[in-house]
Amino acid sequence: MSKSLLFPAFFSSVILIAGNFWLDAPVAKSQTFSFRWQTAQNINSQQLGELLRQGKQYVETQDYQKAINIYQQAAQLDSSNAKIFSGIAYLYTLEQNYPEAINYYQKAISLDGNNPDLHYSLGYSYAKAGENQQAADAYRQAVKLQPDNINNHLGLAIVLLRAGKYEQAIETYYRIVALDSNNREAAEIMATALIRQGKSQEAVEFLEKTSTQFPLSNKLKLQLALSLVKQGDLGQSLKLLRNLAAAEPNNAQIQLLIGDILRLQADLDGAFQAYETAASLEPNSLEAQLNLGAILLNRQKYLEAIVAYRRALEIEENNPDAYYYLGLALQGRNRNKEAIAAWRQALALYAKKGNEAKIREIQELLP
What we know:
The chain is 71% helix and 4% strand. It is built from 19 helices and three strands. The protein has helices at residues 45-60, 64-77, 82-94, 98-111, 116-128, 132-145, 150-162, 166-179, 184-196, 200-213, 218-230, 234-247, 252-264, 268-281, 286-298, 302-315, 320-332, 336-353, 356-365; strands at 13-17, 20-24, 34-37. Helix 10 runs antiparallel to helix 11 and helix 15 runs antiparallel to helix 16 (302-315).
């Protein structure tokens, strides 16, 4: 399961079988369902069938907008069929048009309100649109209608985490493990809730147990490493991270964390190497460039630091930290006019964020 969210009900194809219309739609993981499109006597079934065949062809060629247009015409012919509306909604999710997906899932629910899959998919669409409260409400309705479906609970737990409702996420974790005591995703959710609450000791104890229970979960090991850092156990955390780096050599985030720990241990050479590796794995990593710049600035390698901070600004053009430290690097090269220009940019950006401490620092630097 993706940690962003479980995927919604899958709109695959419309098939004409013996004069009846069928839509096969896998929901989440292994669940599948089929339903029968029965046309009312006053509906032109031949025209509807032709529209469905055309829509199917566009879906197969991944021309989703044309498929949507065709199925919208079909919905006009059979406006009481919730499955047509949910199919359109799913196609909108493929187009990443989540407001329209929400609109059509709501239309489907108005016709088939007791279908848990529709509420689940509505929750997914709300979550992708960043509407965590509405997503939680939709997932709760899916849970109410289908309480033994773990995916409904997982979707709810994820949006609760996003909304910062950690205690509710933990309550949902316990409901999940009551259904499946060996659910890895639930363990990852619980660990995240503990870490975000600042309960590092509880997180370490929980993760030491679950890392043994789920030895193949690198995410749990990464969460354990982070919790150990918060507990001050840098050595054990670094050991875990190095093992993870060997298992996932292309994971830039692990390299960044290794770099952070080595910096805390005053191993700047090792930290620099880790940040360089992270930058090579993820060229658009702002964090990697800022950290490389910081070490170069500390070593008074001002020209190289300038390059790093300018690269950071290419990644995020309105980053105040990049402008601030770029100014320091430029000052180190006696490029004072450029330094002042960079600090003025930083000052304006810090002012927007209300960072009074940084504003005072820059004001002391400006002539």
